[in-house]
Design goal:
Order of helices and strands: HHEEHHH
Radius of gyration: 25 Å
Number of strands: 2
Shape: elongated
Number of helices: 5
Strand content: under 5%
Structural class: mainly alpha
Length: 127
């Protein structure tokens, strides 16, 4: 695929693809100024975008991609991916819990402000 086809297929910009190439996440075939993306690079981009969506750092994604060895009997890449994903999930759950607490507190403040406003309107009407 050309860079334009990759951009269209994955809804990314040429700048994004060049950035991933500079970070050694992608290694398209170069023909002069032209970049050609193989099936391998398309699979890597899918994994990069998924990793970004899950909140992994680009360096973590790069390291995971570099662990890939076809037919790896020890499943090194899969084991490390599972390890990092477990850590990321725990972090996301902690962040969600903190956000749930903040939302609850904010709702309490909004309710309190509403009651105070209603009280003041009642007092002003009685005067």
């Amino acid at each position: 695929m050309t860079i334009r086809e990759m951009c269209d297929a994955f809804d990314v910009t040429p700048r994004t693809l060049r950035f991933y190439e500079a970070k050694e996440l992608l290694a398209p075939i170069r023909q002069g100024q032209k970049r050609l993306f193989t099936k391998r690079e398309r699979a890597r981009l899918k994994l990069i975008l998924r990793g970004k969506r899950f909140g992994f750092a680009l360096e973590e994604i790069r390291q995971l991609l570099n662990l890939y060895e076809p037919g790896d009997p020890d499943n090194i890449q899969l084991r490390r991916t599972r390890e990092l994903a477990t850590e990321r999930l725990a972090q996301m759950i902690r962040e969600r819990d903190e956000l749930d607490t903040a939302i609850s507190e904010l709702r309490g403040h909004i309710d309190c402000a509403g009651r105070l406003l209603a009280q003041r309107q009642t007092c002003a009407a009685a005067e």
